[in-house]
Amino acid sequence: MNIEGELRPQSRLGMWFDHHVYSFVASLGRLLRKPWATALTVGVMAVALALPLGLWVTLQNVARFAGDVQQSRQVSVFLKTDVVAARAKALAGELESRPDVAAVELRTPEEGLEELRQRGLGDSLAALEGNPLPSLLIVTAQGDEAPLAQSLQQLPEADVVQHDAAWRARLDQWLRFGQRLAWVLAGLLGLGALLVVGNTVRLDIQSRREEIGVLQLLGASDGFIRRPFLYLGACYGVLAGAIALALLTGADLALRAPLAELARSYGSGFRLQGFDPLQAAGIVLSAGVLGWLGAGFVTGHYLRQTRPTET
Description:
- The protein has two domains: about 15-65 and about 170-305, no CATH class; about 75-165, 2-Layer Sandwich (Alpha-Beta Plaits).
- It has eleven helices and four strands, in the order H-H-H-H-E-H-E-H-E-H-E-H-H-H-H.
- The protein has helices at about 5, 10-35, 35-65, 65-70, 85-95, 110-125, 145-150, 165-205, 210-215, 220-265, 275-305, and strands spanning about 75-80, 100-105, 135-140, 160.
- Helix 3 (about 35-65) crosses helix 10 (about 220-265), helix 8 (about 165-205) runs antiparallel to helix 10 and helix 8 (about 165-205) packs across helix 11.
- It is found in: Cell inner membrane.
- Keywords: Cell cycle, Cell division, Cell inner membrane, Cell membrane, Membrane, Transmembrane, Transmembrane helix.
- This is Cell division protein FtsX.
């Protein structure tokens, strides 16, 4: 039997790995031993994280809901009521041959009337004599639709020309403002979450200052002493990130059905879209990093203040 091999000291890498595992397990144990304090800390962090995340996902859904409007380059040309179907069809062919036009769709008065009936306006239309709707040309611009809309207004057959460039520009400005607001809130509330972790870890350090002092006298490095507190902060962050996602998921489930019903009343199939698995994992990981940084800052400051000076 090789006694020398059995008594061979463990490698530095193995010791480093074992201490990381021990620090992680010990941090979980400290969380479980103080469930009420842990719940308060994690709850405050979760709300601080959920607010900017909720605003961000709301803006993403608003942008997706208005995506067809934002990306549309369509100009609606309502022809005069005395323009016959043959002339409307010929005009559509003429416009489609223009270099600044990508496509032209002709909707006849009959098609427009049928669409209104499908939207539940049949009773109102039944009281009208004949079909009051004009022919409609939906023109898709090849580039910027503003010059195209101006030129289409000069057509002798055109009655009303509509395009929503101004509305789209205002929507873009509101979305940019909302995104900037989400980033500002994320920064402020993220700082608040970091301070919450830092204060919690500071209290934990104060309760273990005698143990830390003994380790320092024995020559333990700052990294060795700091490691359990770093894992403690990371655990706070990961739990807070997971609870923040759970809160937003609950809000999504509560709002999804009434919002879908409202969208259906406008003839839209829009549904709320939450975080995909990759985004959810990134949020939880980022929250863990935030907790790690808060614990590292507080622990590093404490160790610099208490490290015995060499004589």
